[in-house]
Here is the input.
Amino acid sequence: MFKKKIICHDDSEEYKDIIIESQEKHPNDYLKQLEYVRDNGTKQHYSMWLADRLQYVSTMNRWEKLELKGAHTDLIGRSLLNALSHMQTDLPDGVYDYIIEKMETTILDVIKHLTKQP
Here is the structure.
């Protein structure tokens, strides 16, 4: 049995409160929510909000064609790598399995596309 406590920062009451406040003050206006969280939350809250909104908006527009430059995926990759580099250690394999499952296909598609590999 895994005995180490897994820290989930998005479960904190402080984070939940700032997100709810931003949504109540600016329903359906993600740019205003962004400003609210940036100006009223911590840098950790803001960075988590950015990743959360990217995921949410992408899910809501799953089949919408989106053209990105290599620079966009470079910056998202750098952010992801930095977050993973600072993540708590010795987590159960299931945590890493989830992360890999969610990003592997997309990352392989980006690599194939940008390097012109089949």
The chain has a mean pLDDT of 88. The CA atoms of residues 70 and 114 lie 7 Å apart. The chain has five helices and no strands.
